[in-house]
Amino acid sequence: MTEETSAAVLAGLTPTVVPIEDADRELIAIGERYWAMAGFHPELGTPAWCEKAADIDTLGWGGPLYVVAAGGVRAVVDRLCPECRQQLSLTSRTALADLVKGETPWCVACTDSLTTALQTLNDPGRRAKRIAARARAAEQEALDTARTAWRDAQRHVMDDRYRLAFSDTVPTASVSEMVAALALLRYAPSTTPISRVGTWLDPLHPDQRETVPLLGALVRAGLIRIHPTTPVFQSLPEPSPER
């Protein structure tokens, strides 16, 4: 066989990908990616694929990739199935490699294991579960997007309102406020920035109920400032069960 004849034979073995009517569009897309060819190896004559099988995601469908691909498309070549004598539809990439080597595999309809797997893939119950799972995933994605946008908006407000800028003017404050600010700096676990006072091992004020008003007084006196990275909302402790 001359090189020209060999090239012509291989070109005739390039499968035509035909979408299955009413098949799920995701299955069709997977099938088209699975059967997308980059031609044949110039020396070996083996099929070359546009994508590795491992790079094609079939998450949520279950089963081998060639089964999922067969759920969306048929890859047909100008040959006859040796069993049913109909146009040959390839069951997998391996089947095409066998065809190139001179073997003649059976078509999809004549391969019992594949038709059984396709029945499972197209089971209405499984399809309903996939649709419900996609709806939940889409809803969660929308919630996550909205939550991220809301947090970004909050962060923008915090950055704008509590921009880090220091004044050369010494604030006017009472002695008690200055002592409280000194204690805050002296006993803070970290000053870059000062961590939540509620998480300190030792309380800032002997009476915990007075801690928040004290911090508010220090902010109003200009002795401390709210850091822009401060969360907008602080989580509250779970209420203890009634007895």
Secondary structure elements and pairings:
Layout: H1 3-12, E1 16-19, H2 25-35, E2 37-40, E3 47-49, H3 65-70, E4 73-80, E5 87-90, H4 93-100, H5 112-121, H6 124-161, H7 175-187, H8 211-221
Antiparallel strand pairs: 1-4, 2-3, 4-5
Count helical runs: 8
Rg over CA atoms: 34 Å
Portion in beta strands: 5-15%
Strands of the widest sheet, in order across it, are: 1-4-5
| Share of helical residues | 40-55%
Shape: rod-shaped
DSSP E strands, number? 5
Uncertain runs are 235-243
N-to-C span: 92 Å
Main beta sheet strand tally, sense and closure:
3 strands, antiparallel
Give the integer mean of the pLDDT values: 85
Structural class call reads: mainly alpha
Which sequence of SSEs, written as H and E, runs from N to C?
HEHEEHEEHHHHH
In a few lines, what is going on in this structure?
The protein has helices at 3-12, 25-35, 65-70, 93-100, 112-121, 124-161, 175-187, 211-221, and strands at 16-19, 37-40, 47-49, 73-80, 87-90. With 243 residues, it is mainly alpha-helical. Helix 7 crosses helix 8.
Written overview of the protein:
- The structure is a single chain.
- With 243 residues, the protein is mostly helical.
- The chain is built from eight helices and five strands, in the order αβαββαββααααα.
- Strands 1-4-5 form a three-stranded antiparallel β-sheet. It has a two-stranded antiparallel sheet with strand order 2-3.
- Strand 2 and strand 3 form a beta hairpin.
- It starts with a helix and ends in a 22-residue tail after the last helix.
- The C terminus is likely disordered.
